[in-house]
Each structure stands twice: as C-alpha cells, then as structure tokens.
Design goal:
The chain is mainly β. The protein is built from 1 helix and 16 strands. Strand 2 (11-14) and strand 3 (17-20) form a beta hairpin. The radius of gyration is 28 Å and the shape is rod-shaped. The termini are far apart.
Length: 174
C-alpha cells in the first residue's frame, strides 16, 4: 500500500520575534485499482413432456450470478456463452461487492449429440469495463451440486436423465 505524505511547518512573527511551529505530518493511504469480476452459473433440465427422460427438443435453463469482486465500478457487464444465446443485459453499472442474479438467462435446446453424450457441459464468460476502459473477465464456476471440483471455473454439467437412444433406426427418439 502506498501513501501520500505531506509535512508542513508554520512560520511567522510574534512581537517582532520569529516563531516556527512544530512540524505537522499527514499520511493518506492510497490503494490501487483492483478490478475483478466473478461469474457463477446453474442449470436445470426441463422435462417438457413429463416422461422423466430427455429427448431432442427439450431444454435446459441457465441462470447466472455475476459479482463485482474488485474495488472499482464496472460498466457494460455482459455474459457470453458459446453454446446458447444469453438473454438480458448488459448491466450498465455494477459497483464493488454488488451481485446480480436476475439480469441474465439462457436456454439450451437438447440435440442428438447431447443425448449421445448423456449430458451437456459448458462454460460462460462474464466481462466488464473498468473506469480506465480495461476489460476484466471471468469464466463461470458451476453452482450445480457435484460439479464443484474445488478449482475455479468448473464447467456447468447438466446430466440428461434416462437419455435413451433408439439405436435401431438411429433417430435418437425414445
């Protein structure tokens, strides 16, 4: 931590005699700009037809929690995800320590490849601009139970329940 230090002495005359005060010292701590952002992502499988298993065309809903973990206000906060279109945002301004969990959502439509894999795994990225126009980013960490490996930026994994593949005609229907 740096500091701005200022010292002053008052000098004057009293009844024709010079007078000098004791030195006065002021030290003001200065902390640097430490921008930072954190993104967490959760998912849930939507069983639209209610049969308990995943089929092509059903969906996965994603929710996002973005937090300004730095000490400067971030602007133009956005979230991108390579596998879905993220709705909402950008957040115009996110002050230090502020958290937003309502602005951004996304929906993934299940594909035959997802069914073959038995799960969908992906990572989103949050970004924001500092007052000096430097971009800070963070890859998402999963909020899903069982996904957290203890490391930062765990992918969000959504298991597809009873993903039964019709191997006879290979159309991936149940």
């Amino acid at each position: 931590i740096a500091a701005i230090v200022n010292s002053a002495v008052a000098v004057g005359d009293y009844q024709s005699s010079p007078i000098t005060s004791n030195a006065s010292l002021v030290s003001i701590p200065v902390t640097g700009s430490v921008p930072d952002i954190q993104l967490q992502k959760a998912s849930s499988f939507n069983d639209e037809n209610g049969d308990g298993g995943a089929q092509v065309g059903e969906t996965i809903s994603y929710s996002f929690t973005v937090q300004n973990t730095g000490n400067v206000t971030l602007t133009n906060v956005t979230i991108t995800d390579p596998t879905v279109t993220v709705s909402g945002g950008p957040i115009a301004s996110l002050i230090p320590s502020a958290t937003d969990n309502t602005t951004f959502t996304a929906v993934h439509i299940i594909t035959p490849a997802d069914l073959a894999a038995g799960q969908v795994s992906n990572t989103a990225t949050a970004s924001g601009l500092t007052p000096s126009s430097v971009t800070v980013t963070d890859d998402s960490d999963s909020l899903n139970p069982g996904d957290d490996t203890g490391a930062d930026n765990d992918p969000t994994i959504t298991p597809l329940p009873d993903a039964v593949i019709d191997a006879v005609d290979n159309d991936f229907s149940t």
